[in-house]
Design a protein that fits this description.
Layout: E1 20-23, H1 34-46, E2 53-61, E3 64-71, E4 79-85, E5 91-97, H2 109-124, E6 132-146, H3 148-152, E7 158-172, E8 178-185, E9 190-195, H4 205-217, E10 227-232, E11 249-256, E12 260-267, E13 273-280, H5 291-305, E14 313-321, E15 327-336, E16 343-351, E17 357-366, H6 371-376
Antiparallel strand pairs: 1-2, 2-3, 3-4, 4-5, 6-7, 7-8, 8-9, 10-11, 11-12, 12-13, 13-17, 14-15, 15-16, 16-17
């Protein structure tokens, strides 16, 4: 009986932060929950090569299990990552590196479509009928691995791999447009499955709640329909360290009109707001607000939108001159970054001359950063 009812997949090759390792050496040392084990066995049947690999790690983060498989021989870089929801048994991630050789070869459109369709039918069973084939197009398959021989002499050597393939697109109109793409390599191997546009019903509740609080706090953000997508960078080497930790997996809301651009970015794991902006034409005020008033407006915004608002500490404010000469006030706050004690989250809130909140951006800085000097220079980013 198949238990995989949905795939919410984007490439994730590295373990998540704040996950707990529940297994280390032998699959038999831990008993996977029934639905997780059934889904895992289904994937092994769908991709027989995985039976030749060794299960090297099982980690649990919240209600999801992440299983990593690797080639059995030393220096064999074949690997796969499978992530499964414990409660539903849904497969939420699949990516498979079957070769690290550089290659420009591509499968034919017919083979790519055939292999992608076969894979999804085996995984989704009766659920697959909701999707219709849309297109086949060229696709890049890019990743990197660490050279094992270099590790033996305590040297980290990352080797970038570029392979060509085909992207097979399936579309569902149920509950709004949803695009499912499968990247297929030259030999017909499935490299990844990605759901590129999300239905609101599929978003994590934490993400939806944050978006709703923001829309209530900034009414102008309510006016248009948003295109919702996911930007997953957890397989990118530039996103490994703490400085880019907030950007690894982001849900993006984007709406554009003739005179306004509205953006909302929310961390998909934590549900925290990482960025929003309301770009529009602005008129200079005859009675612009003071920095003290801007600070009060920004603090109120934090209380309205962010959880743990009491943990945010004011660190400074300064003026930012925009391209058209308009001057806004940027107010800064910091809060601890639990995963990395030597770093903190730095939140900058933009307030226009009439006291309206027009943007917010969260970044990661070293804990000993001099924010007073940063804001006194009068040029916040």
């Amino acid at each position: 009986m198949k238990k995989m009812n949905s795939i919410l997949a984007l490439l994730i090759a590295a373990p998540l932060l704040c996950s707990a390792t529940v297994w280390a050496k032998d699959k038999n040392e831990v008993k996977l929950p029934t639905l997780v084990n059934e889904t895992y066995e289904e994937v092994l049947v769908s991709v027989p090569q995985l039976k030749q690999y060794k299960l090297t790690s099982v980690e649990q983060e919240d209600d999801r299990f992440e299983l990593i498989l690797q080639g059995k021989e030393k220096g064999e870089y074949r690997s796969a990552t499978i992530k499964i929801d414990e409660k539903s048994g849904d497969l939420v991630l699949f990516t498979h590196i079957s070769s690290v050789e550089q290659s420009q070869k591509q499968p034919s459109d017919e083979i790519a479509k055939e292999r992608a369709t076969k894979f999804l039918k085996e995984i989704w069973d009766e659920e697959f009928h909701r999707y219709q084939f849309t297109a086949v197009e060229p696709a890049n398959i890019d990743f990197y691995y660490e050279d094992e021989k270099a590790k033996e002499i305590n040297v980290i050597k990352e080797i970038d791999v570029h392979r060509s393939g085909k992207r097979v697109v399936f579309t569902s109109q149920n509950d709004g447009e949803s695009i499912l793409s499968v990247r297929v390599e030259a030999g017909g191997e499935i490299y990844s499955v990605e759901e590129e546009i999300f239905n609101v019903s599929k978003l994590d509740e934490k993400v939806k709640q944050t978006a709703q609080r923001l829309l209530e706090a900034v009414p102008e953000m309510k006016e248009e329909t948003y295109h919702i997508s996911r930007d997953d960078n957890r397989n990118g080497k530039w996103f490994k360290g703490p400085l880019m930790s907030l950007e690894r997996d982001v849900i993006r809301y984007v709406s554009e009109s003739s005179n306004k651009v509205k953006l909302i970015f929310i961390n998909n794991r934590t549900g925290e707001l990482t960025h929003f902006s309301l770009l529009k034409e602005r008129e200079k005020s005859n009675n612009p607000i003071t920095k003290e008033v801007a600070k009060e407006k920004a603090a109120h915004f934090i209380q309205q939108v962010l959880k743990d608002s009491d943990k945010y500490k004011f660190v400074g404010s300064g003026e930012r001159v925009l391209g058209d000469g308009y001057v806004e006030i940027v107010v800064g706050f910091t809060t601890p970054l639990p995963e990395h004690i030597n770093f903190i989250k730095h939140l900058e809130i933009s307030v226009d001359q009439d006291g309206k909140i027009t943007g917010a951006t969260t970044g990661v800085e070293e804990a000993n950063s001099d924010f007073q000097e940063y804001y006194e220079e009068g040029s916040p980013r």
